[in-house]
Amino acid sequence: MLSRERISEISASSTHGKKVYTDYSVTGIPGDGRCLFRSVVHGACVRSRKTIPNEDLQRKLADELRSMVADEFVSRREETEWFVEGDFDTYVSQIRQPHVWGGEPELFMASHVLQMPITVYMRDEDGGGLISIAEYGQEYGKEDPVQLLYHGFGHYDSLQIPANRGPEARM
Fold it and tell me: Which of 23, 89, 155, 157 is catalytic?
C-alpha cells in the first residue's frame, strides 16, 4: 500500500512538479470576445463576496474593466510597451474593442486596475485536475486570488477552488 507522501510524489512527478487541484467548480462564461474580462469581473465579485451580476450587467462591467485596462496600458506605457506585440497605439486601440480577445498582458493590467491577485489554471495532462499556469498581481496578496480557468483557444471561465483547500493527490 502506498503512503500519502508517496502518492503526492507520484502526483507531483506526473504533472511536472505542479500541484493538482481536483476540488473546484467552474462557472461558464459566454465566448463573446469578452470572456477574459467577464471571468475577471465574476471572480472579483466572488472574491469580494458581492452579488454575481446578471449577464447584461456582467457584459457592462466587463466592458468597463476593458476600458480601465486599456487606460492602464497607456499610463504604464514605458514599462509595458516592450511586451505588447506590434505597434503599441494600435494594440491599445484594438484592445478597447468589445469583441477583441484579451490574454496575458490584459490579465497583468487587470490585476493592477483591481488591485487583486489573479491566478490562471488549466486542466492537467490527464484532464482530471487543474494546475496553476500563471499568477498576476502577487503584490496585492497571495491569498484568495481571482481564479480563472483557461481552456486554450483563447477562452476563459470563472473558477472557484475552495479556500484553505490544498491540492489533492491523485494517481
Answer: 155
| Number of structural domains the chain divides into | 1
Let me know if residue 117 belongs to a domain. yes
Q: What pTM was estimated for this model as a whole?
A: 0.84
152 bridge partner residues: 155
Kindly tell me the burial class for residue 19, based on how many C-beta atoms sit within 10 Å of its own C-beta (0-12, 13-18, 19 or more).
middle
CATH of the domain at 83: 3.90.70.80
45 carries an active-site annotation:
no
Cβ contact 88:115 at 8 Å: no
User: Catalytic residue at 63?
Assistant: no
Confidence at residue 17, expressed as pLDDT on a 0 to 100 scale: 67
Report if residue 71 sits inside a domain.
Answer: yes
Is residue 35 flagged as an active site residue?
yes
